[in-house]
Amino acid sequence: MNNKTKKVAVVIPCYKTILSSDEKISLKHLNKFLGRYDKFFISPNSVGKLSFDAAKIKTIYFADEYFTSVQKYSKLLTTKSFYEKFLGYEYILIYQFDALVFSDQLLSWCNKGYDYIGAPLYNSVIGNLSQKKGSPASGGNGGFSLRKVESFIKTIDLAESVARRTLANRKIGQFWFLLAALTNRSHGIWLNCPPQNYPFNEDGFWSFEAVKYYPKFKVAPFREALEFSFEKSPEKCFRLNNKKLPFGCHAWARYNRIFWDKYLIS
């Protein structure tokens, strides 16, 4: 990190102008606990005037197509041009509107030196098929995730430098992946395609594929990722985390909202 680079910025995908009541809770947690950090919306070019207070949040615009589906959004987050928007920061924290944060631990997590941290993915089928036997495959969910900008750009450069073909059809890509798994080849680099062609959600690429291109790419191990964030099965995660809240969580209203209700700020 050079002298002109700040440590971290919070990046919030925002493609609509009106927030639901749950999304307002998410924004309230962000402002309360991480209010002192630089924050940016990433939004489609055509987004209208926001109906909620976001006076201290700057906006970076991208093509509308990236916000039309989960697959298109995943493509955006595997492009070099996305991360180049944040070259002034060592890290970015992706904070979707279905995330919550419970304290300000952001700098301490940055200082751990990982390239990618997200809520552990329990027994991920894609992860287990992507990794050699005995390799960790917990991965990390991207909805509330910490990413080292320089490492992400380097990984994309390395992946694109060895890509020998492109793949436009996502279903065909998933079929190829299954074929590679059946022939015991899925633990190799991603089918000689650029990262934008990865046929699953982008956090799968960063969790399981990035290290194949950039061996120094460090994904937080299961136990530390659990301290960082929960997603599915929050009660189980809470027990495994010695009955302590994590730094944040993702999809709180989707996975056992009752568990999270007592931790929501009013």
Describe this structure in words.
With 266 residues, the chain is of the alpha/beta class. The chain has one domain: Spore Coat Polysaccharide Biosynthesis Protein SpsA, Chain A. The chain has eleven helices and nine strands. The strands form two sheets. Strands 3-2-1-4-7-6 form a six-stranded mixed sheet. Strands 5-9-8 form a three-stranded mixed sheet. Strand 1, helix 1 and strand 2 form a beta-alpha-beta unit. Helix 6 crosses helix 8.
Defining key terms:
266 residues; alpha/beta; three-stranded mixed β-sheet; 11 helices; 36% helix; globular
What's the quick description here?
This protein is an alpha/beta fold.
The CATH topology assignment is Spore Coat Polysaccharide Biosynthesis Protein SpsA, Chain A
CATH architecture: Alpha-Beta Complex
Distance from first to last alpha carbon: 38 Å
* β-sheet strand percentage: 15-25%
Query: What string, H for helix and E for strand, traces the elements in order?
Result: EHEEHHEEHEHEHHHHEHEH
Low-confidence segments, ≥5 residues, pLDDT <50? Answer: none
The CATH class designation is: Alpha Beta
Q: What about the largest sheet?
A: 6 strands, mixed
Strand arrangement within the widest β-sheet reads 3-2-1-4-7-6
Please specify the SSE layout and strand pairing.
Layout: E1 6-13, H1 21-34, E2 38-44, E3 58-62, H2 70-76, H3 80-84, E4 89-95, E5 99-101, H4 106-110, E6 116-117, H5 125-130, E7 144-148, H6 149-162, H7 170-182, H8 202-213, H9 222-228, E8 229-230, H10 234-240, E9 248-250, H11 257-261
Parallel strand pairs: 1-2, 1-4, 2-3, 8-9
Antiparallel strand pairs: 4-7, 5-9, 6-7
Helix pairs in contact: 6-8
